[in-house]
TrEMBL record:
This is VOC family protein. Gene3D superfamilies: 2,3-Dihydroxybiphenyl 1,2-Dioxygenase, domain 1 (3.10.180.10). It comes from Muricoccus nepalensis. PANTHER family: BLL2941 PROTEIN, GLYOXALASE FAMILY PROTEIN (AFU_ORTHOLOGUE AFUA_5G14830). It holds the Pfam family Glyoxalase. SUPFAM superfamilies: Glyoxalase/Bleomycin resistance protein/Dihydroxybiphenyl dioxygenase (SSF54593).
Length: 122
C-alpha cells in the first residue's frame, strides 16, 4: 500500500550517513538524490524512505506521534538495525526486545529526531 515515506531534515548531509547505514543493513541503497532530498530503497521493491529539506523552506520539525517502522527479516536483524542506528548518530528510544508475544522491536531516532523502529513479527 505504501510507496515511500519522507522525513524532514535540517541538515541533509548530516542525516544521510545514518540512512546509508540503515539501508545497507536492509539490502537497499540510494535510489534518487539531489540537493533537496535523498531516497533509499530497492528499484521494484517495497516502500522506500526519503530524507528531505522541507520544500516550503521552513525548518523541518518532528511529528509527535509519527514513526516509521522498518520490517526486519528476523530478531537478529532488529538487533543489528538498532546497533547501526546508534553507531550512526541515532539515539535510543527502546532497546530490542519482545513487546508482546510474537512482536520483537527496537526503537530509535535519527539525527534530526525523527522516530523509527525495526520490528519482526513471528
Amino acid at each position: 500500500m505504501l510507496g515511500y515515506v519522507t522525513l524532514g531534515t535540517n541538515d541533509r548531509d548530516r542525516g544521510a550517513p545514518f540512512y546509508d547505514a540503515i539501508a545497507a543493513e536492509l539490502g537497499a541503497s540510494r535510489m534518487m538524490e539531489n540537493e533537496q532530498f535523498i531516497a533509499w530503497g530497492v528499484p521494484g521493491g517495497g516502500a522506500g524512505i526519503g530524507l528531505t529539506r522541507p520544500f516550503d523552506g521552513k525548518p523541518a520539525t518532528v511529528g509527535n506521534g509519527v514513526m516509521v517502522a522498518l520490517a526486519a527479516k528476523d530478531r537478529a536483524q532488529v538487533d543489528r538495525l538498532h546497533a547501526v542506528a546508534l553507531a550512526s548518530g541515532g539515539t535510543d528510544e527502546g532497546a530490542p526486545g519482545e513487546r508482546w508475544p510474537g512482536f520483537y522491536a527496537a526503537y530509535f531516532r535519527d539525527p534530526d529526531g525523527n522516530k523509527l523502529n525495526a520490528f519482526f513479527m513471528g
